[in-house]
Amino acid sequence: MNSKIKNILPNSNPRQLITSLAFCLCVLGQGIQPSFAEGSRSLYPSGATGNRANLEWRTDLWGGLILRRTILKVYAEKDEYILLGSSAVRVNNGDIRVFQPGRVTGSVGSETIPATPDFQCSTQTGRGVISSRTQELAGPQSISGSGNTTGYIPCYYQAPSTGIYDIVFYGPVGDNTSNNAPTGQISLSNANNFNANQGSTVAAWDVTIRSSDQNSTTDLNGRLFSYYLALFTGANGRPLYFPIYPVTTDGYRYRVDLRGTDPDGFLIYGNQVGFYDSDGITPLYHNILAQESVLTTRDGSTSLSRPQFATFFNPPNTDAFSYIDRYRANGTFDGTGIPLIPSPPTVSNLNFTGTVGGSTTSLGTGGTFTFNSNITGNYEIVISRDGVNFDPTNSQNRVLRGVMNTAGGQSVTWNGKDNSRNNFPVGTNYPVRVKVHAGEYHFPLLDAENNFFGGPTITLLNASNPLGNTTAFYDDRGYTTIGGTNVGTPGQVLCGTNPPNPAFSNPISGFNSTSNDRKFGVSGNSGNAGVRCTGSFGDTKGLDLWTYFPSNIEQTPLNIVANTRLLLVKRITRINNQDLTDIVDGRSDVPIGDPNYVPSPRDLDDDDSKWPTGYLRGQINAGAVKPGDELEYTIYFLSNGGSSATNVRFCDLVPPNTTFMPTAFNGLSPNDGGSAGADQGIALAVGSTTPTVYFSNAADGDRGSFYPANDPATPTNCGSNSNGSVVVNITKDSVLPNLSGATGRGTPANSYGFVRFRAKVK
Predict the structure, then answer these.
(1) Which of 98, 544, 622, 640 has the fewest CB atoms within 10 Å of its CB?
(2) pTM given for the model
């Protein structure tokens, strides 16, 4: 049997207060009244039919990140009693453990559990055992035994202080197994729910808070929550209908109704980003596709984000909010306390600074966006190609998304590309829009083979969302990661049997999550292949469903102008009468003095893919020379800025301890517009189809000139001319008006060339 993880817990923001996870069972319009209890009787109240999902406690991982176990958390005030029971207590190694506030530490999903609990249920003889479905539904007797006598006899622990207590339930196999899934039919009343067949799971369980009166039978609900629930149904064809109540860290409260989600082994949690792109930082807003059920080997190096939001079993008791820990999207601790009233988001002062200046940038160079946000949360910037379509998924637009860990001023860099990784073209007044998201909640559904009834439904409870309180988003299409790897076929629905139709919601306005638009897979016990692309659509995938509360929209324009970029690579190509034909690679990872040493970042200039093959001959360091030796210097150039380069004037300083040779190329060919018969010490070649031309050294009508040391006429771009300077106007009038931008290796022919001169060692 393939055990599959399903993220059925909505993704909430890190500042949500987690009330007790009261699950009201709503079966496709059949209005079963909520049972306000804290435990499995919350999920499966009286009148519920079908199967249950057991709590898991295992040592293996979902997605290489989140342990397959459930740590429950309950808010209790000083001297209140925590009443506990399960169908696994004293069944082999089955037990319940309680830890005082602050003792369970570490990142959510991989916490460190102390070896010694503050309370252990099995130590109270004759207590804590839920032995039947009847006892499960009845809940705990009073501690004294005088009240609710049809219920189970609870074990109990009196809270020594007010705070959040951690509760751990062990199945019959105890706390150290990576297998032992339950066996047999896990129906609501099956005998296997109350014996050793539970394996690494617990079928019936209860955490109830009552006052300090041991005769009390009044349950204090809305106190129990978890950051993640590891659950197991045992097979497909056992759909789930219960609700959960997540709270984001910024105080937005939701109800999530599973509405027939049909997983096997699964995980319920919520967070701010869903999944991460290949950089491990950027929210993906897509699904992840893996090779196996537990999502360890994922296409495109995408990754899971940790559970982040408190998820209650009942509508939360807000008394707990000030004690709930907040976590950021990256899993780091962000403080304690969740606001009772969320702040509406606002964004202002959007500006763009380009590489040319102001709101103007050069082609392919991008720039920086800045804006102000009154909240932490997520941002979305969309650059529109046509000024009308602002679809963030449009291939010709560009979307920039990320997480804001602090309110106030924000800065976001852009590389000048569109969503297809091509340069945004030259143009003026491209409109840019930014908005920020409060209460962003993602519900990652991990390895859930089937969702035949279209759930879950996400409903905002404590604000009025401009998009609609049941609006959500999904995108089940293939895509290209930031790292350039395709996951599926970009733009087409991902593989798997019976995918959703439509394959994605409206990227701007979303869809109504009460509909069955995202129905996928089949109805019944099938589709659980556990192998990529062979089972139902949800098999071996992490499916993201999300919602958020949007801010206003700010807009600003940007301009893109043509740019030029000239690469220069210098080589020694001749010593005396011997041409040097070496092909060498400049490197910065070797010691200074190595023959191939070139300081970073210039060491990469000779690696550009648009240089003609074998063109850069010569040596970087020709070794020892002696007075009288003649050295030839060649400076290769390549225009690769994406547009033509004009008014290109080149200057190179004659190396120290050498003397420029003014007649090095006399008689090789006519010079280019200079005086006939003049000394020719400078050579120029452009491309491979035109002949090399040779210039006189004088500042005459040709394009080359030599300026002796300290000549006051030396052009200012040459710098300090202490030993002579060679100057060439590479582009000039109709002779060569520009250097075209290279589009490929040695293409076009007028995109590259060289300048050459010779000098004698003193």
Answers:
(1) 622
(2) 0.77
